[in-house]
Amino acid sequence: MVQNFSFNTPETGDGETRVSLIKVCSCFFVFCLLFFSGLGLAWAIFFLHKIDYDREKEHLAYSVSQLKKEVKLEYEPVSWKFTDGLSRVGEHELFGYVNTKGKLVIPCEYATAEPFSEGLAAVGDGEKYGFVNDKGSMIIPLSYDSAYCFSEGLAAVKQDRKWGYIDKAGHKVIPCEYDVAFRFVEGLAAVKQNGKWGYIDKTGRRVVPCEYDFAYPFVDGLAVVQKGQKFGYVDKVGKLVIPCKYWTASDFSDGFAGVKETVASGHKYVDRKGRALISCDKDVCYPFSEGLALVVKKDMQSEDKYGYIDRQGKQAIPCQYDWAMSFYEGLAGVQKGTKCGYIDKRGQLVIPCKYDALRRFSEGLAFVGQGEKWGVIDKSGNLLVPYKYEFVEDFSEGYAIVSLGDDYFILADPLHVAELNKELSLLNEKSFLSVIAPKSTREVIFYCVALLMMTIGIILYVKTRRRMRRADVPKRYRRVFMFLEIAFVVIFILNISIYAFFLHLDMYSTSTMKSPAIEEKEQVQPGIDSLATDSPTAEGAADTTLDGERIIPYKDGSKAVN
């Protein structure tokens, strides 16, 4: 027997209009289902955003804390640079590789080891050479007498006293038939056969006949070749576009190459057709770099003074410095008296001459010295790394290897650390609304669906409640409806309370946690030095003149040529 729950309204004394409690309860259930489903969908999107936000913040904080640390090297550095994320190190006259975290990823077990290039490195056991990948796996067995790094997909290898080329799978692409073979540059490689030099392409085809006494790699489509004691230039089809008539010749840079016709003649710059467009009356001329060429002229006291000329041959910056270097990244190091600073291309001294030593800018940073210690500055002259280290090397791939006493360290690019710190600060300053805001069109649709479901549920509830008010509802039914309303309110408040509790807990933990990134925000972090050359003050790789000389300045202003 099924009881029919019904009641009469005042307007219909005859009981024609019946309101079923089951229907009311069903409507209320549908309302709750729609409301909480919409609310749950909205909260699901929010919590996904919150999880991503927290993960990103934790990742940045961890990255900053790790990058700010000096990673001590347990092995002696060999190359002092990172290539493909690895650097060569040595132990007991054997060589291996470490990553940027200082971890030895390839054991020190090879008698010879070359830098990584294109994912592989040439290694040898003292008799034979092969290639390993960045995991240390031997990809190409130790079967060659000698080997060079990969370049443009091919590597030069020596077998039975002759040189040829292999690909990354170890297949011999060009037979070993040359006396000497250089790496591929711009699609061509210089090779020597029967005492003469020429060029081949990646198929082994002879593009430039072996008829020169020496051949250099291609730069900007032209290569320096030598016949007897004279130098000229060939193009990629083998045409001698500039005859071998110069006593010295440099690679092309910024569309010009520096040459001298005789020992006693002056320097001049020629274009790609061999036309002498700039005659230089200076004693020493360097190749063009970023539109300007470094030149040296003796003053009335026969002392070297450095300046710069432009591509029209005009004196862009007067010869007034006791020492200078070529432009890199828009700035050039100069020396006046015993102090060094940096100028821009207009000749303006943008960083004052207050350092005992300096190096060129690399990756937005430059190494400067005070006394016997080196630190790091940015292009505004801000000291990012204190004067601390004794030997340093330029940054490569965002890292530098430095030494302090008998210890070696790996340092991260302080500019990169500053960028991460800035990103972390911006994350910490994000508002609640910006965190939960939709990030894509799909999320906007989800939010709209959630809002629509909640709205439909509320409308359904309002209509049901109005019907209950109009009807002559028995007390027990009113109690049931009131119980459902109270249950809904309790569940809703409980839901909000749980969410608020976790949100407060998260905010409390965030505000009280001492993030290494924030803790060291105002500190000056330890810095980077540059690998020393024979000069304690000059740039590590001293500029090379058009005569092939290397001029190395010392702190007292004197110069040594080697």
From TrEMBL:
Keywords assigned by UniProt, alphabetized: Membrane, Transmembrane, Transmembrane helix
Superkingdom per UniProt: Bacteria
TM regions (residue ranges): 21-48, 444-462, 483-505
InterPro entries linked: WG_beta_rep
Identification of the protein by name: WG repeat-containing protein
UniProt organism field: Prevotella fusca JCM 17724
